[in-house]
Known about the structure:
The complex is a heterodimer.
Chain A: H1 5-38, H2 44-58, H3 60-77, H4 90-138, H5 143-158, E1 160-166, E2 169-173, E3 192-193, E4 196-197, E5 202-204, E6 207-214, E7 217-226, H6 234-301, H7 307-339, E8 347-350, H8 351-366, E9 370-373, E10 380-383, H9 385-402, E11 409-416, E12 419-425, H10 457-467, E13 471-476, E14 484-492
Parallel strand pairs in A: 9-11
Antiparallel strand pairs in A: 1-2, 1-7, 3-4, 5-6, 6-7, 8-10, 10-14, 11-12, 12-14, 13-14
Helix pairs in contact in A: 1-2, 1-3, 2-3, 2-4, 3-4, 4-5, 4-6, 5-6, 6-7, 7-10, 8-9, 9-10
Chain B: E1 6-11, H1 15-27, E2 30-35, H2 38-47, E3 52-56, H3 64-72, E4 79-83, H4 88-96, E5 101-104, H5 109-127, E6 132-135, E7 138-141, E8 146-149, E9 152-154, H6 158-169, E10 174-176, H7 177-185, H8 193-207, E11 217-220, E12 224-227
Parallel strand pairs in B: 1-2, 1-3, 3-4, 4-5
Antiparallel strand pairs in B: 6-7, 7-8, 8-9, 10-12, 11-12
Helix pairs in contact in B: 2-3, 6-7, 6-8
Amino acid sequence: MNARKPATGAYKSNWRYAAVPGIVLVAAGLAEILFRTTHTSRLGSVFLIATLFTSYWLGSGPGYLAAAMGFVIYNIYLVGPRFDLALGATESFIALGSFLAVATLMGSLTGRVRDEAERAKTRASTTQALLDATRDFAASPDEDFIRERLAHHLAAAAKGAAVVREGHSLFTSPLELARLDEPLPLDLASHTVDGEPSVATTYVDQWTLRPLFADGSALGLAAWRPEPGAQLAAEQQTLLEILADAGAAAIARVRLAAAKANAESRVRTEELRNALLSSISHDLRTPLAAIMASASSLEEFGDSFDAATRRDLTATIQEEAERLNAFVANFLNMTKIESGAIVVQRTPFSLREVVDRTIRRQELVHKREVVAVQPRAAFEASGDPVLFEQALSNVVENAIRYSPPGAPVQIACSREEGRAVVRVTDSGGGVPPRELARIFDKFYRSSGVTSAGTGLGLSITRGFMEAMGGEVTAENRTGPGGGLAVTLKLAVAE
Amino acid sequence: MIADTGRLLLVDDEPQILRALTPALTAAGYTVETAATGEEALTCMAGEPCDVVILDLGLPDMDGKDVIQRIREWSEAPIIVLSARDLETEKIAALDLGADDFVNKPVGVGELLARVRATLRGRERRFSSQPSFHFGDLKISFPTRRVEVLGEEVRLTPREYDLLRTLARHAGRVVTHRQVITAVWGPAANVDAQFVRVLVAQLRQKLEAEPSSPKIVLTEPGVGYRLKADDDA
């Protein structure tokens, strides 16, 4: 538009000057009517008003023209003798002087008003451009998006082209700029002073190069140029620099936010690792501590213990060794699931048999009753019986752990929608709804639960069930007894 | 040697630990009370005071450190921390809160009993007005501030003497860096643990036959120091 501006200006001023004779003629007509009706020849003020309006509407140039034309017509037409240019009269000089004075005064006044309006318009569009840009920058947490939008806004503000560069990424506006033959003066390496990246704005040919800096770190380089042949006005250049700086600040903000998120995720990872370590440390050391205490007690005081105490201590050693073994097995299973080293058989097996066996074993270990609600018709499920038993055992063990002593744990088998379903229901307090989805996560322990347990059991169950093409879900039971219901589903063998 | 008698409170949430330790502690002559939670422990202490408490830090209802704090509000009964946590900061915090000693799980009953004995002896020493300390080659006379090794007087600076006296008052039990700093530089001192190490090194130079392999002032890695006061601890 810079290039088009002079043409528009010329067209406008021609039109403005062409309008002047018309206005003066209208004034002359008005003066003629007044002359005929009032018979007064002191009608200079009519032409004065015409000059005033001309200056106000059309600017000072047409104003002067109107003053001169008005003076001539007034002189010839009204200042006697009529239809004679009487330049000698004092009156005519006073008229001319006042016409010109009014034109000058009005011209400069209206000019100033017009300039002011023009500036206000520029300011408004500058503010709008900045507003649009900052709104764009705030819209995304992505650095590259900000760079791309920055290039767009710079090009719009320069009414030309713009490039934003960071490392090897290049963002241009218009987009095809990079494909044009025009050399882009954007070698960051050349934009250095004594090997240090330059902080100052520099100018190469038509281009203005401004490094993007925020909080003392270099964030790339922005460059812009107007249309070939056009010049950038001082306000435009200022706006462009402010835009570039706003872009830099937005990029810095995005980086800071990313760094913050990163740090937070590191803290979470660290917390998880600590929880894991303390879990392993606790679960390995507790049985070890019991074994060591029992064994050393037997060694030091064995002779003074009665038979029952000795039996109790050896039983402790045995039980705790089994617990250690179970923990190690769980841990190995977890590792197997994670490394994909698990071998899954898919054979038909009797669900009823596996459930019965699991119940017998759990009752033996935990010395409490587990109630089985058997299916009416025994049917076969398709999967790996060994893995399924392990998966089910972990669920039952969990149910026993979270049920009050003596309260029943129920196991029901059924056939639902063509799938073999085993549901284990405990009499515990259930799990807070928002934690339901997480109880199958590794090392997850429900909040407020501090009793023994590795946090591995249910995650192994899920791993095994998924490996067999089955699934496991959990839901809180409503109604009397409450508790948690864990459902294992497998395909039915046909 | 003090007779191994008295009431002993054993606090641990793992029933198998209680079951494994109780017979040996009973056989050693203690009347053993057990508690599985912090609340139970505090209730038990409020009933008939115990002579020594063995406390696991990881309890289901409250942090073991809070139990120590609650007991210390009114009781000076010796507390031995028994914990699977091998986090140094946990131990130090427990000791600074007033625990007397710590034992890491797993532990043999022999070592545990030795620690209990040392703690009880240390208590007696700290609250008695015994004018002197004597163990092995080391002899300290508190009224005259005279320190002898193998009958020969050792000249100590005031700080070295303060350090040795503190260790001797807690003989057989661990003293944290913080406790040393409080005793030697004062409770408000802002002194780095490095200063304690330097001071201990100076003291060892004067007391130990072989300062590089100390036999009198022992290091508890990451926690503090312990003055050797019996042969089994």
